[in-house]
Amino acid sequence: MEVKLFEDYFLFDETEPEEKRKYLVVVIYDVIDNKRRNRLAKYLKSFGFRVQKSAFECILDSKTHKKLIQGISKYVTDDDLLRIYRLAGNADVQVWGNIQKTEVDEVIVV
Question: What interhelical angle do 62-72 and 34-45 show, nearest 10?
Fold first, then answer.
């Protein structure tokens, strides 16, 4: 299988003020209940896009990242697992499979 290397997958602009700075946010989860898992996926789609069956990538500023965090508790229980990584700095990503590079888009959360 071919490996794609996205060099500088995400470029972090250290000159941006904190409130305007963007981060690559990776959310991975294992939610047992199908209904809650589907609702969580729908919620995460409003912030980013799915890169694996239970993994999303998002490019968010600090304010939107906080909104993401605040809403998560509606979808997970103590029986579930969920991790959120907020990555700063430049990142290279190696990909096996048909996954496209994350594009920086403005996300509007309603």
Answer: 170
Residue 49, SS3 per DSSP: strand
Token couple for 68: 């993401």
CA dist 8 and 102 (Å) reads 11
pLDDT tens for each residue of 27-66: 999 999 999 999 999 999 999 999 899 999 998 999 999 9
- How many secondary structure helices (H) and strands (E) does the chain include? 2, 6
The three-point CA angle 76-19-110 to 5° equals 45
What pLDDT score does 9 carry? 64
